[in-house]
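Service request form, structural biology core

Requester: graduate student, group of Dr. S.
Request type: structure prediction, single chain
Budget code: on file
Notes: please return the result as structure tokens.

Sequence provided:
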Amino acid sequence: MRRFPGFSTSVSGGRLGWRGCLQSALPQGRRYLVHVTYPECFPDEPPIVSIRHPVLPGEGVPHLLSGQRPCLYHGGYRDGYDPARTTAATLVAWTALWIHAFETFQATGTWPGAED
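Core staff response, request fulfilled:
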């Protein structure tokens, strides 16, 4: 939690998680309430990351999955999530990058980075 002092552990629906706010680095960027929830099958399944506030526009937003879940890595979960190395802190860092890309997309209409 040293890298993300604004985050703390939480229990929601009987599931262990991590929650806190990320502030966009863009000028006049917004704050985002982020939840990382460990699934029952953890570590065989990756933690679930969702943005709880603000509510994101689902229609037309690239790399946004149902349930306000940012798509944080390409392909099947093994392409980005490695249960031996990926931590909640890694997922929060990836979410910070996603938020930057999302706000860039809102400002320019183009999602930054490679789209393969």
